[in-house]
Design brief:
mainly alpha; Serine Threonine Protein Phosphatase 5, Tetratricopeptide repeat; three-stranded antiparallel sheet; 19 helices; disordered N terminus; disordered C terminus
């Protein structure tokens, strides 16, 4: 009888990583960078030099340093080229900033290899601490950049994944710019999901992911996510809060199930699930009446469908889909007057929406450009004292200094 493979503790408990994404979706160096546009402005603070052959020969990083441009802030140049030396950790911090600003920078892999050989895990733990300290003092760009740098070093680093997701969440909650909010919200959601997929026993990621789904109206997913939170969490107050939230979700879950039935063409089932909520607190939810209207229309109850759609328009007067449903009903019944009435309303709403969207997009584009180009504050390396007794970068033997051209980013 073949010897059975020993199970891990997680497997014994029935906890397995069932979702493994392709690196193109999970590795920050490879995945789409939704929010990098807001950090690349900091790269203007750096110029690039190279180490001398002598320093490369004596360095622990050795051949890894050959031909790799070293990022320096303008204030670092004198020390780097003047002979007194520049702490290697200052250079490491500069590399972290460049990686964090742009994980797709063509020398990110070189920086990761160099820093890994010299400092191993201690450096990305330092990046993590620096990011948390920055978040505590409200410097959220700084925090995000350090969390992103730590993820360049170790893409599945639990604390960096979770902290990065929370930082993105805090940033979009503090903004009114639609473009900015959309990008940071998508990034936060993706990294909360990635954290639960990669580290399925980490409870707090489920806590925030559940709220993200709730705010998107995905009540079933929120409930399932919070069930996992309760499974793994040991935080009494948070568990009490989430149990209360799940009780509050029972109605919305049934309504969402009814919506899904209607969308899937199961009109009778959807109607049966949704009708009981007409005499509940959810009677003020216009989608409830919209999906009931669709269910009524598709099951031949035209008068009830019309009443439901008109109810929607008392709550959401510009809902074009509802007006189009009324146009279709009146077209089928030959009621030209009412058909034309709602066709005109659609035309008016569409025109207003187009005008508003044009003005809004122009305003958002202007704000988004300012967010990308506003003069960045000069940030000082903070985690130098976290690692002791490190080599000094002396005798650099200046070869060339250049700004980071667009083609090099």
């Amino acid at each position: 009888m073949a010897e059975q493979k020993k199970k891990t503790l997680a497997q014994t408990m029935g906890i397995t990583r069932t979702v493994v994404r392709d690196p193109s979706e999970s590795d920050i160096q490879l995945r789409e960078d939704r929010i990098g546009r807001y950090f690349k402005k900091y790269l203007s603070k750096f110029v690039f030099d190279e180490f001398s052959p002598k320093f490369i020969e004596e360095s622990k990083a050795g051949d890894l340093l050959k031909g790799v441009p070293i990022p320096l802030r303008k204030k670092d140049l004198k020390a780097f080229d003047g002979g007194e030396g520049l702490p290697m950790l200052v250079i490491a911090e500069n590399m972290a900033w460049v990686m964090g600003c742009d994980p797709h920078f063509k020398h990110t892999k070189d920086y990761v290899a160099i820093l890994s050989r010299i400092y191993n895990y201690k450096l990305y733990e330092g990046m993590m601490k620096e990011g948390r300290d920055a978040a505590e003092r409200g410097a959220m760009d700084d925090a995000c950049i350090h969390f992103r740098a730590a993820l360049c070093m170790k893409p599945d680093y639990l604390h960096a994944m979770y902290s990065y997701a929370r930082a993105c969440r805090a940033m979009y909650q503090d903004s009114r710019n639609e473009e900015y909010v959309g990008r940071f919200k998508a990034e936060a959601l993706d990294f909360f999901e990635l954290t639960t997929e990669t580290h399925p026993r980490f409870a707090q990621a489920y806590y925030y992911l559940g709220y993200a789904y709730l705010n998107m109206g995905l009540y079933i997913k929120a409930d399932l996510t919070w069930a996992e939170f309760l499974r793994f969490s040991k935080n009494g107050p948070d568990k009490k809060e989430i149990r209360k939230r799940r009780r509050q979700l029972q109605g919305p879950i049934q309504i969402e199930s009814g919506y899904n039935d209607v969308l899937a063409g199961r009109y009778e089932e959807g109607r049966e699930k949704l009708e009981p909520f007409l005499n509940s607190q959810f009677n003020t939810w216009w989608p409830l009446h919209y999906y009931l209207g669709v269910a009524y229309e598709m099951t031949g109850k035209k008068s009830q469908a019309i009443a439901s759609f008109k109810k929607v328009l008392t709550m959401n007067a510009s809902h074009i889909e509802t007006m189009q449903e009324l146009v279709d009903i009146y077209t089928e019944s030959g009621d030209r007057e009412n058909r034309r009435k709602y066709e005109k309303k659609i035309e008016l709403v569409q025109k207003t929406i187009q005008e508003d969207q044009k003005a809004f997009k122009e305003e958002i584009a202007k704000e988004d450009k300012e967010l990308q180009e506003q003069e960045p504050k000069d940030q000082k390396p903070e985690f130098i004292e976290e690692i002791k007794e490190l080599p000094m970068a002396r005798d650099s033997g200046k070869k060339k200094i250049k700004r980071l051209d667009r083609k090099d980013r």
